[in-house]
Amino acid sequence: MPPSPLALVIGIDGGTFDLIDPLVGRGLLPNIERLLTASASSRTTCTWPAHTAPGWSTFVSAAAPGNHGIYQFYDTQDPGYGARITRAGDLGRSSAWDWLAAQSYTLGLVNIPMSHPPADLPGYQITWPLERTLRHCRPDSLLRELAAARAHFQSDLATMFRGDMSYLDQAERNVEARIRSVRHLMTTRPTDVVMVVLTEADRVGHHYWHYEDAEHPRHEDAPADSGWERALTRVYRALDTAVGELLALVDEDTVVTLVSDHGLGRGRYAFSVHQVLEEAGLLATETGAVPADGTASWFADGGRRVDFSRTAVYMPVPGSYGLNLNLKARQIRGTVAPRDRDRVTAEVTDLLGGLKGPTGDPVFRAVLPRQEAYPGGNGERAPDLLLVPADESVLPVTSLTGELWTPSPQTGLHRYEGIWAQRSPRVRPGRLPGTIPLTDAMPTLLTDLGAAWPQDVDGRPRTEVFTEDVPVPGPARHLDRPDAVRSVAGPADAPEEPGEDDYTSSRLREMGYL
């Protein structure tokens, strides 16, 4: 029997207690129930926007987006209105993997969003690429090893929902395949710390929510014998089986953390923020497709495209809940002079701050300048303005034609509250009142593990969950120095940064992200 890791982190992308607690109450998630019963747990406040990219980056860095600099799958401040994919090197600070490597811990990291390309870390990695590549593991031979052991799984991008509702069956198989890989790696390549992220609850929740939610405005009966009316239950039961298999590989002394990047809930409406801006004279369109100059595909729709030479404000990336001013000397076709910045900002704030949805309720509770929304040392890559939703069932999109308000393309949408639980012999079980920041999850894990972290993080350990006076090993001043960690865990190579390609765009578009 291989040695048990010191820590095991199980990530559930889009995990929500709104689904988990009722299913536990019905006795349908026995393994998750067993873990929660022995754990301290809490709902978490995640990131604005509630999104995979900033969410997992926040967890692994214990820092808010303004301090780590990742806001979406694509760069939200491309001066040429392009679609530069965000990669691991865009994390503008060190992460827990750097800190642990600098303290001689070995790592097994599998399918963690925003982790590509693989870094030169002690142990092994299978990254989460947002591009078509076979170079997403370290050591380089790892995928061949898994294939030979019949324990290989495809990258998350390759297995995303593609508009075919038979995906539910595939999602269950994807969970099984990922756990086969992790089981093989944990038994043949033992490491001190293991983390795996399972993304299928997010994928299924986006596209099947309305079948199981009888109160959803688009609720419909599932086709006979499809099982779609139990889609959310089915995917969580598959995750429960996975959690049980992972728990069987560790002993009672292993620190086990269950965490999500954000939650998920009912999605009702989409509205075109670009059409609202165009009606107000803040954005202009013209006839034509996307020009062959690197402009992102989402700036064209239905035979129209954004005319940046006459546009003052635009949403840089779908799903970013952000707006950019088209500033002169920053954007290549900028129109807003520095002296007009405050005036245009006030105009946009008044316009969208007063926007009402189909129900007559406000859509946004605030329109924040990035200095307020994203304080920290890496805020320059953030959108200029953040739209903070008052109604999380409404999704701003970038369409240029059609109705202003439409049913959301995803019937389940991200939520600001996620999940966290931690089990160890030193933790007092029980659900904490209220919420904790997602930034606190990693320092709490590291405290339980006896590992330090730098001073410049936003999170703090939740010492109230421990049954004894557990020493708090961090922050450690030496981990603040880039040379203390980057020499151990710097990127293995620096490949050319990819822009938009048809494969990546089509996968994300079919998921409803673009």
Automatic annotation (TrEMBL):
Positions in coiled-coil regions: none
Bias (Acidic residues) ranges: 494-503
Residue numbers spanned by region Disordered:
465-514
List the InterPro entries hit by this protein, alphabetically: Alkaline_phosphatase_core_sf, Phosphodiest/P_Trfase
One Pfam family it belongs to: Phosphodiest
Query: Know the name of this protein?
Result: Nucleotide pyrophosphatase
Q: What is the scientific name of the source organism?
A: Streptomyces daghestanicus
